[in-house]
Amino acid sequence: MEKFLETTYDKFIFRVKTDCFYTKDDFWVYLQGKIATVGVTDFQQKVRGDVVFLETIKPGTEAKQGQGIGTIETIKATFEILSPVTGKVVEVNPDMYENPYLINQDPYGTGWIYRIELTDPEGDKVGLLKAEDYFEVMKEKIDQEAKNLYG
Questions:
Q1: Which residue segments constitute the domains of the chain, with CATH numbers given?
Q2: Can you give the three-state secondary structure of 60-114, one letter per residue?
């Protein structure tokens, strides 16, 4: 059974999956040996709005931790996908092109974006946050968003 850390603000519930690592830029990574599955956090998809278009790099392309590997366009904004890990993209979620809204429906499941074969799994972990640490960062961001909206 999947486990999440949750916090509520107004009518919104924000979830952080406990078996993933995170970036401060609101991307998650699930590590399985030398393969990392990458996606957008629940916080990111809620704040940015409904995803309408996704531009990705092709399988076989090298990804470097912290560098852009695609673009997500929502009804509110366009933002860059920043790779949380370094390695070679081995798969792009084929369902994303037909239904990029999967990111909004199930950000930690069917809404994944990339699978990347890692070149340095232990080295990548240094640049990532554990779920509990990201949860605290996310709560600060929620407070900041609320201040921006409601003064």
A1: 4-150 (2.40.50.100)
A2: CCEECCCCEEEEEEECCCEEEEECCCCEEEEEECCHHHHCCCHHHHCCCCCCCCE
